[in-house]
């Protein structure tokens, strides 16, 4: 009989795990020794490393900044964003591409909602390989490719992980929408074919996002759906968030293009209540 079959033994075993620390877990209270200059330790909101195949979700206030780091060069951050106050408003990848006349994300680009508002802006990006076309892998697709695709199995898909993250905030699988993939890219060829840009890449590439609304951020760290490699490849993804100021009217990202300014005006009008 298992040593934890007895309730008292199970309790003692569980309590003995207190204080255990592993790489892939939230740090509570959050602590980080590499915050940007000018960011106080007291402003830190979130510090967590997502394991390969892991997921996380967090509510972040308007003006917060979220830094994602591909620690070992083979992470894929599949990202869903919801308006925390009204989750029926969410990231719209098609409008993100269409409004900005550009499908390739990078520094200065915006992540737009289906209401024409800015949900987040990209303040810094030293990765340069992102994807707005392909979405995430499903259980069925992973089962065909790897022989296993269950959420509880060895090769979970990004969609099921996003569903789990959304559920933490009372949302269902119907709320999980097309995502953007950070750190794994695609290129559209002249004839329309999609070429995946998968890597692996150098370690410690980072993307810095600024939340322009009160948002729920859901992140899955699973292999890109077009990863051409035979094996299931994923490495840890680090998330760090801190308090920062609401975007001013003089902000260069806000005023970079007429489309950006209009989207920010839509966001500011939403909060002018």
Write a structural description.
This protein is α+β, with helices and mostly antiparallel strands and 273 residues long. It has one domain. 18% of the residues lie in helices and 26% in strands. The protein contains 5 helices and 13 strands. It is globular. It starts with 6 loop residues before the first helix and ends with a helix.
Question: What distinguishing features does this structure have?
Answer:
alpha+beta, five-stranded antiparallel sheet, 26% strand
Task: Summarize the helices and strands and which ones pair or pack.
Blueprint: H1 7-16, E1 44-50, E2 55-60, E3 65-70, E4 77-83, H2 93-100, E5 110-112, E6 118-125, E7 130-131, H3 139-146, H4 158-167, E8 180-182, E9 185-188, E10 194-197, E11 205-211, E12 215-221, E13 237-242, H5 258-271
Antiparallel strand pairs: 1-13, 2-12, 3-11, 3-13, 4-8, 4-12, 5-6, 6-11, 7-8, 9-10
